[in-house]
Amino acid sequence: MEGFAVKKSAFVGASQGDIRTEYDLGKMLGDGAYGQVYLGTHKTSNQVRAIKKIPKNRIKHPERLETEINVMKISDHPYIVKLYDVWEDERYIYLVMECCNGGELFNHIIKKKRLSEKEAAGLFHQLLTALNYLHQNNVVHRDLKPENLLFASEPCESSPLKLCDFGLAKLCQNQTKVMTSKIGTPFYIAPEVIAGTAYSFSCDVWSCGVILYILLSGYPPFFGNTESRIFEKIRSGAYDFKRAEWNSVSESAKDLIRSLLVVNPDNRFTLAQALSHPWIAANETLSDVPLNIDIESLTEFTNSTRLRKIILLCVASQCSDRDIKNLREIFISMDTNGDGTLSFPELQSGIARIPTLNISIENLMREMDIDRSGRIDYSEFLASTMDKNIYMQEERLYSAFKVFDKDGSGKISSSELREILEKEGFSRGEDFWSGLIEESDTNKDGEIDFKEFLGLMSNKKLASD
């Protein structure tokens, strides 16, 4: 795929009209200040989604909604809620997202009172890696709290945690960006944000410290009957470990909290320091995950046509968490620095654990890196390692086919490929797009029908009609 770059965000739909033509809307899952969230089912693939229905007349800050959508579009991480589709009609905007039916971390804490150190460390590590990924991509969240962390499924104890709600997020040019807006949720807001002075990405690290304190004790470090009293305690950094709940908590866990809840952001831990803290390492559970990667799928991917790789990336971007649980755990275990991508050394170290793989690491990196970023993103990893039993399901492939068949004609044209892939900034001449079609156009009519599409994905050549 030399000179060819496709991003996962290209497959996030943007549609006008009645959302019910594509989705069945079911029961309401939640009702908030900015709209309702409904259970939805995609009519073609039967995939279950969460659909956020936002009345246009309630949108007071349209730039924040635009940022929320853009952040979710570019995010590609196992611990961040996926955005699949955006719909708009005369009265509403709909965000079609990954359905996380395990509930909020907030409710889990209330139910259990407080968590064991091992469970807390596992969940906190997931939060840190998701946030580290966002910061590496110049996104600051600014509203981290247990209510914005969802379990993908039940039971919560065996479910991954997903970061959501980017309504107050900021997409910056770089991590040195200085912000001044006084926003956030009182218990979790950093002292420099309260002060109304300039602050940076470190405000999220403070919120992480508050969350870790709550995970281990069941109550917030800065409590007061009024907002002004809460803010007064936050500004002073006045908290302690005196209550009985802390008697059984290790000194290492307390040390990490002390390093995060530092009033001066210049002296506060960075995310990299938090991720490498001994308490996190001592409770880490994914370092020895076996690399049960389907060698046939990986080899087949490296030998695939350009279009087949694009389609596999599309399918991977639409997969639910339960489809790819094993691959998620493998990816996280290979991502040793916790930045949400695989570097060449990380890929090399991980693949070294598969002695039967007969392909050079350099070639593997080049073939897997579909967006030419120099790193392997999560969806790229899934696309290249998915078992055929996942992507060869006909309803899943037909759903992917419809992503490319924009006009619903039952065929994919070069202009439709161009429309989808060029919207993310990838521009090529007409000969290039026609060449993609020709790779799989067995009947030579200049388009790809679903029969040819299936043949391409099964890696079988079809006889011309």
From TrEMBL:
UniProt EC number: 2.7.11.1
Chain sites annotated for binding ATP: 53
Protein kinase domain sequence ranges: 23-280
Presence of keyword Secreted: no
Catalytic activities: L-threonyl-[protein] + ATP = O-phospho-L-threonyl-[protein] + ADP + H(+); L-seryl-[protein] + ATP = O-phospho-L-seryl-[protein] + ADP + H(+)
Keywords: ATP-binding, Calcium, Kinase, Metal-binding, Nucleotide-binding, Repeat, Serine/threonine-protein kinase, Transferase
Pfam family of the protein (one): Pkinase
Gene Ontology MF terms: ATP binding; calcium ion binding; protein serine/threonine kinase activity
CC cofactor: Mg(2+)
The keyword Nucleotide-binding belongs to this UniProt entry's keyword annotation: yes
SUPFAM superfamilies assigned to the protein according to its UniProt record, in alphabetical order: EF-hand (SSF47473), Protein kinase-like (PK-like) (SSF56112)
Gene3D superfamilies associated with the record: EF-hand (1.10.238.10), Phosphorylase Kinase, domain 1 (3.30.200.20), Transferase(Phosphotransferase) domain 1 (1.10.510.10)
Ranges where the EF-hand domain occurs: 322-357, 361-391, 392-427, 428-463
Subunit architecture: Monomer.
Family note: Belongs to the protein kinase superfamily. Ser/Thr protein kinase family. CDPK subfamily.
Name of the protein: non-specific serine/threonine protein kinase
Native organism: Stentor coeruleus
